[in-house]
Amino acid sequence: MKKQLTRRDFLKLAGLLPLSVAAPKLTGVLDAQPFQNVIVVVLDAFSAHDISLYGYPRETTPNLARLAERAVVYHNHYAGGNFTTPGTASLLSGMLPWKHRQFIHYGTVDENFISHNLFAAFPHHYRITYSHNPLANNLLNQLAVGGNFDNYIPSKNLFLTTDGFIPDLFAKDEDIATVSWVRTIKRQEEGYAYSLFLSHVYEPYQELKIANLRPYYPRGIPSVKSDNYFLLEYAVDWLGGQLGKIPQPFLAYFHFMPPHAPYKTHRDFYQRFATDGWKPVPKPMDIFSREEDYNYEELKTARTAYDEFILYADREFGRFYDNLEKAGLLENTWLVLTSDHGEMFERGIQGHFTPVLYQPVIRIPLMIFEPGRKTRTDVYENTSAVDVVPTLAHVTGQAPTPWSEGIVLPPFAPQPPDPQRNIYVLQARTNPQYAPLTTATVALVKGQYKLTYFFGYQELNAEDRLELYDVQNDAEEMNNLYSTKRETAAELLNELKDKLAEMNAPYL
Amino acid sequence: MKQYTKQGLWSLFLICAFPLHVWTFILAFRDFSWVTERTNAWDAVGVMSYGLVFAFIESLVIFLIAVLLGFLIAKTWDPERRVTVMGHMALTASLWAVITSLFFLIPISLPSSVIAFLVKQAHPLRVLYGVSLVLVGLTVFVPTMLILRSQAFFRAIRGVFERLATLTTLYLFFDVVGLIIVILRNF
């Protein structure tokens, strides 16, 4: 006999109604989220050009070489830009600077893209982030407002000494407030400061706090903006420890300053390369060279200090990896090592604040450590920073990231990438943020060739400058093929100009 | 006798603020071009604005120190002389601080004959510091004595201070503008 539904039964079933509404969503979450952790480590201004793993004659990265035996190593990986702001934004957003618009010095991404980023791609992960670099923090601050983090660790927490009250007081104008504070109080920078009296008191006070560490760092203790001192080993240990305590699955983004200038290595590596006799290839001065960087010997000395600082960063990344392994975290974690941009010491240019886009400032490392991988895979196809977000989303079963301009990287993509794929890098630091690009440098890397297009610069009397290099066979970019390979150059230039027109269209 | 009058304190504050603001203006204008090149002119104005706000704060600190030091002076001095002496000391100390900074700012060096003389000494640095101490002492001590003993000198210094005070009032106006810019940049 069919039993009638009593009033009591109905009420019991009604109690289950909210669960029935939530159930499909919960199932969806469980299906799409295989609970693998993700850690992205950025070593700032880390040029592939100076990494022995990629063929640099000085052995700067013994630890990376050791760890590479269990990684996917990308040999021709390009940043989105040539300094922190566009480089980091491209890595985190999966978009190139002409789309996310963070290509000025202290810019932020277009408001429309706050929800389009690495963190938003992992909505069910516990998202933790830390950066030494104030420019990266400017971007992270913007993303934090958009609710992208569960744990955004303030940079000052891992500094030995800090001007932390400046970002606290002037959060929305941190960069310029900090520049002014440095000019006001820190005589170290130039030997004089705006402040005639307090600067004499402030410096000894700061110095007192770190005096006992001085012997370990013969070139000075690593620092950001003069005297915000830090130790990479402290950051690595503390953050590594946090990863064992936070809920899983997690997504961690750690942006460490070394080997960015000032190049203050640990005493274990001090003068390691000072007398090795290695000489960089002499290169002609560039029109954008700076008077203070003309001297070949001085550039060589600076490069040696940089290479020794890389040794320090390499050791600490090695320790970071080993600690994660000991903690058992790597069994279930994707670990990515990369950078935001490179660094150069040639053609009368030191650093990366430059209109040029030679390989040392745009070719960066990328290593992906897959959970459980025991073998090495080398990828020689051209890849871009914008590929990292779609790749991580893909390998961990997250929803696709259609906003990204990148692709899923080999060997994780179902199909091999197009070998003739266009990789773009943009420098437009002085161009207004929301205007068509009229003063900029764009590099287009396609196959073995790289076309660099400079336009709108006063130094060039507003005329175009074009260079074409075979970067596979002429890694030092010594032979400009623009006038001899006219057909290739014209083809690449047309593609580049078409792309520029497409990207400028919304701002015309 | 009352140690300070309101007018005297205000004058002393203006005298303390004067060199700090002049120096900030000079350096901020020097920085204007590279900050503009680094980002833009509005940011260069921002650097200058923060600089002026910090200069105002430093002026307050130096003023408070000067006031406290003034209490060490005998009560028999009249408040005007007390303010004039403290103002003179603040100005002189600022002047020496500027001179030490100028050493890094522009390529100046001691005359070669002085350097040759120092090199010949057994302890050149001691001699240099000794001479510096004497110079600083004289620039503090001699005007202080003249302010106390010579009515004409006292009046002349007062006249100078009054003119500087007028100029500093203008700088304070710029401080207010700077503060407004700082507030605007943080909203």
Structure description:
The complex is a heterodimer of chains A (508) and B (187). In chain A, helix 6 links the parallel strand 3 (126-131) and strand 4 (151-152). In chain A, 32% of the residues lie in helices and 17% in strands. In chain A, the strands form four sheets. Chain A has an eight-stranded mixed beta sheet, with helices on both faces. In chain A, strands 13-14-15-16 form a four-stranded antiparallel beta sheet, with helices on one face. The N and C termini of chain A lie far apart (76 Å). In chain A, helix 3 (62-68) packs across helix 11. Chain A has 14 helices and 16 strands. Chain A has 508 residues and is an alpha/beta fold. The longest helix of chain A is centred in the middle third of the chain and has 31 residues, at 296-326. Chain B has 187 residues and is mainly α. The N and C termini of chain B lie far apart (49 Å). In chain B, 31% of the residues are buried. The mean pLDDT of chain B is 90. The chains are: A alpha/beta (508), B mainly alpha (187). The interface between A and B is medium-sized, with 27 and 35 residues.
